[in-house]
Amino acid sequence: MTTALPTPPDVIRCAYAELVVTDLQASKWFYTELLGLVVTHETEDTLYLRAFEEYLHHSLVVRQGPVAALAKFAYRVRTPGDLDLAEEYYRALDVPVRRVPAGTTRGIGEAVQVVDPLGFPVEFFHEAEHVERFTQRYDVHGAGAISRLDHFNVVTPDVPAARAYYEGLGFKVSEDIEDERGTVYAAWMYRKPTVHDVALTGGDGPRMHHIAFATHERSQILHLCDHLGAVRRSDQIERGPGRHGVSNAFYLYLLDPDGHRIEIYTHDYYTGDPDNPVITWDVHDNQRRDWWGNPVVPSWYANASTVLDLDGNPRAVVERTDDREADVTIGADGFSYTRKDDEAVGFKVGHQV
Amino acid sequence: MTTALPTPPDVIRCAYAELVVTDLQASKWFYTELLGLVVTHETEDTLYLRAFEEYLHHSLVVRQGPVAALAKFAYRVRTPGDLDLAEEYYRALDVPVRRVPAGTTRGIGEAVQVVDPLGFPVEFFHEAEHVERFTQRYDVHGAGAISRLDHFNVVTPDVPAARAYYEGLGFKVSEDIEDERGTVYAAWMYRKPTVHDVALTGGDGPRMHHIAFATHERSQILHLCDHLGAVRRSDQIERGPGRHGVSNAFYLYLLDPDGHRIEIYTHDYYTGDPDNPVITWDVHDNQRRDWWGNPVVPSWYANASTVLDLDGNPRAVVERTDDREADVTIGADGFSYTRKDDEAVGFKVGHQV
Amino acid sequence: MTTALPTPPDVIRCAYAELVVTDLQASKWFYTELLGLVVTHETEDTLYLRAFEEYLHHSLVVRQGPVAALAKFAYRVRTPGDLDLAEEYYRALDVPVRRVPAGTTRGIGEAVQVVDPLGFPVEFFHEAEHVERFTQRYDVHGAGAISRLDHFNVVTPDVPAARAYYEGLGFKVSEDIEDERGTVYAAWMYRKPTVHDVALTGGDGPRMHHIAFATHERSQILHLCDHLGAVRRSDQIERGPGRHGVSNAFYLYLLDPDGHRIEIYTHDYYTGDPDNPVITWDVHDNQRRDWWGNPVVPSWYANASTVLDLDGNPRAVVERTDDREADVTIGADGFSYTRKDDEAVGFKVGHQV
Amino acid sequence: MTTALPTPPDVIRCAYAELVVTDLQASKWFYTELLGLVVTHETEDTLYLRAFEEYLHHSLVVRQGPVAALAKFAYRVRTPGDLDLAEEYYRALDVPVRRVPAGTTRGIGEAVQVVDPLGFPVEFFHEAEHVERFTQRYDVHGAGAISRLDHFNVVTPDVPAARAYYEGLGFKVSEDIEDERGTVYAAWMYRKPTVHDVALTGGDGPRMHHIAFATHERSQILHLCDHLGAVRRSDQIERGPGRHGVSNAFYLYLLDPDGHRIEIYTHDYYTGDPDNPVITWDVHDNQRRDWWGNPVVPSWYANASTVLDLDGNPRAVVERTDDREADVTIGADGFSYTRKDDEAVGFKVGHQV
């Protein structure tokens, strides 16, 4: 990052994602019947969805298309003037930038769309249509009620470079995973005062690792598992439920019908003070990814969604050259401990391949 | 079983277990600090423990000894006269039987001790000392409060034979696991109107698979995991938490410091009507052991505790000759489905070795 | 009760109630949309309902009629032969008795209907149609999912007499409320091993105080309150949620559209051992009815549902002549303490009229 | 407010309160044994306490003194330079201001102390000592674990004037309670993106209405009630538990041994976007203060804590001249409805004096 960059836009928070799916009806079941997201608007090929405590037009767009992919991540900025700042900022970064008029995405005002330096399609907007906030519409809240979008998680080969890019945009790190030689495997970064608006996961990228929604309580997350069992779709539970070490959140990873990974998440903590302590986890700490030491399934490390460029074409992926977290923690070549300086007994019996 | 057997004793429920451990202080931390069991009495080498809603002297005895083992399972019978019935019944079964005076086990009245036909050391008693019931002692209930002993689970080679033995003793089957050829892999049997007082798990036996305690809610079970993480003992979490298919219970399996398996369990259902429907699960149904399709770790199938005879000597184990559940469900030779008649997509990605 | 009575029927548990309502559509919303009971069968004027873990045809019948009332309480008996015992037993008690053929109530086999000595219309049956048990149908479980019928609560003038009647029928007392002079205000009695199948509440009777359904967790009870708020029917919340002193159960009392009181209830304890300790509460103990000391609303003491005789006519009510719990505990003439021997500070500030 | 005021300090959030109590040992039980706050430091006459997810030295100081009172509310500001802004701002407001060196309050850096225009003793600080964050110390989290300080609630006669003062300081309104004539009864205002950092309650003031701590889940709040019942101190439960209409939070009001009101609170919502919708409640809406329509106890409206000036002297109270919420909503002269335009049936039976 050069120091000569112009002032970045003031990002409030992660605001919505747009996913391309190959079978809209299958996705509709997943997002509206299972997850219970509210349909703000529906066309023949697109669903505009929001969670119960959201009052902007949508936090998720699900659109029929030829290839399952992430079409964009959108961040909300504080003022209309931040769009000008965004435009200048990304032009200075020499990446594709375009300004689109209000309504280019239904319910969203004028916006700046870029391919960010990490290769992701990202939109910045300020104006959006307001709709009813269903905070107290307990008559339609199911047992697995979801409150709001929480964060995006992106796969990128060079985590320190990605971190520097996001720091330039005003994000701060809450937690990260490193090893004793300084290799960084992942980092969590925020604008709103939660653990993250975006997480950076080291791997071949750009790919979308997951998007995450928040609930109030753990029982709502557990119900989603029970519900999937009841309809004989438990194979859409990829990982969890469990307690993260990083973030302390209670989590669950589901796979939508196209394999897009959706996390459901609760219990993280306030990070809004300027001196919020950064927590660095050792990549070999077996409780970093799951506080209970339950193993991370290999697919969680390996699989991620294709991302599109601004013209809707799938982007090529760059390989990670640093060590991979799965390699250094799973199997014969990797190792993890439960208690530091106690490696001999620290392996979890029976859980590792 | 011959039809000429005398009237069996009227068993009320599973009542207590006695475990031999090799490091009493380590076990004391596990059973009293982590699980929060109340210490009714403590001697130099023995702990007498109960859960918060229990008013008999103990539901668990933990005793220092040379070899980690199950010393006995105890069932409570309805009347003092049932001890005579028990004595006659087991003499007719031609197994070791002895009548012991009150106080042989602290807090327990006169009892009949037998090696049952499955090879387990089992005691029948009626009288027991009453102690304070801590149902509403919320001042000492921790976040992981346990209510009561729920069931025993035994490993035995021939499940149909074991089932016939327990039916002779008045137990009924609530659920079982079979395959299309009639092989029985496990059965759940009850006297009190819950899903079980004893479960029969097919395998090399006699060995103790686990003993289980009940909580009121799932949050209490989840806290035990969080607590183990906090003290860096997450490797004592063997399996779960999860939702069983069989019994519908929310479960967690922990390993005590000697590897004795303890289940924490809630949410099963009432079975007290005489026509309570029996549920038979297909051994290939991937949701039978975990409703969410999460894999059963191999150790859960393989490991179990040694059991002692009435003189305290470890008993030899007889191999199971029927198919083993692990073999027919895990890995290249086994298979499981999430949706019947949909095997191609029914495997859970990334979870099976 | 005379000792010359014949053998009573072997009652398993409370099994179903039949309520007459004056606006079936309003009641249908309450019982199926709010409480989420499953409709087994529906005719123009009657709903047959069950909770998610029940497999008999119904645990609640709601029937359109001219006057809101309880039409009958039904207990299930262990064998068909218990119907003969019931018939003989109630004939010996010299109360109205009639034997009705299978199908008299849809889904229920042959039955014996009586007006019991307390004046309530009571049915005994053994056979009933089996239907799907929705234990794991999490796809239709809402956030306020109800598991099963738990108990009946009856208002009767003379609690000791009512207790003696139910003891004659094989019920046992788990808890009661008395004063220092021996006046009994209420008693809880059971056949199945929970705190009660029937509670006896001292007051003008025979009237139905409430019927109660059980949930697995407290969050399900809290959701019912949230749901009523969302549809602006919070005035149907009569009392609670709270924690009972008696039974330790977490509770909520709702009023159906005709004012029939429905309790939702969880967290009571196992009572199935023959020496289960009886707990006697002092009527002046301010935590007996609510462990948190929250006041009992006057309507809860005053109001109750009319009961019908076997021909469907409302029964006259007999006044209680003993002291009334409301009189001795609320207001200027009554008193309650939080800490025994500490009356001066034991009143709850601001809560008592 | 004049437009000529200097730039106000950038307030991050409410940060700590200092209470004077008359029996420190009694208070210690309440704050550390019941609420489970962590003791950062303890002297003969003062406790410095924090909740489990807090890393600043304390969020509550409890100090022995002659008269129970609020000694100060403290807000954290974003930078050291904000102290200069605070000093100038309050000097321009012509209220008592003093700058105190680091350590004046243990663990807190240099600070500016003022009597704010509403009459409350308020401190602004930036620097504070960091201590261990107990987020994942589940080994010491009890069943009623508290995460962090959430807000202050102040009683003030003129709510619109108080709102204007706090808006001048950069706070925004999330919700308020008004009547059809424009009288404002209460307002909720925030800096951090929750429903509030401070609530303004109309009444005789300056007095402290309460301070509030947040938990993750409702079960933790319910446990505090159970715990108080177990130690026979249920009379310290003043109001609740319940669900607020305003804020949607699940709540409980406790009274500490001196009558200082402490709220425990969870489930409010994100307010961090600049166009967060303001919700105005009608004072006659019976669900505004409790979504379930449960009555507000009179003491909750009437009682509040004395506040001290900067020299530790109790401040005189100014009477509210606008209508009082209790008067217009409770009893014969007030009224509330559950359903607008449906007053006849909208009263909650049996709950209003």
Compute the CA-based radius of gyration of chain A: 20 Å
Oligomer: homotetramer
The number of helical runs of chain A is 7
| SS-derived structural category of chain A | alpha/beta
What is the overall pLDDT average of chain A? 95
Enumerate the strands of the largest sheet of chain A in spatial order, edge to edge or round the barrel.
14-15-16-13-9-12-11-10-17
Low-confidence spans of chain A: 343-353
Residues in helices of chain A, as a percent range: 10-25%
Could you spell the SSE succession of chain A in H and E letters? EHEEEEHEEEEHEEEEHEEEEHHH
Most extensive chain interface and residues per partner: A-B, 38 and 38 residues
Total beta-strand segments of chain A: 17
Specify the biggest β-sheet of chain A. Answer: 9 strands, mixed
Which word captures the global form of chain A?
globular
Tell me the distance between the termini of chain A. 41 Å
Quote the beta fraction of chain A.
25-35%
Descriptive overview:
The first copy, chain A, is of the alpha/beta class and 353 residues long. Chain A starts with 10 loop residues before the first strand and ends in a 7-residue tail after the last helix. The longest helix of chain A has 13 residues, at 218-230. The first copy, chain A, has seven helices and 17 strands. The A-B interface holds A 218-219, 222, 225-226, 228-229, 232-235, 237-238, 241, 243, 245, 250, 286-287, 291-294, 297-300, 302, 338-339, 345-351, 353 and B 218-219, 222, 225-226, 228-229, 232-235, 237-238, 241, 243, 245, 250, 286-287, 291-294, 297-300, 302, 338-339, 345-351, 353.
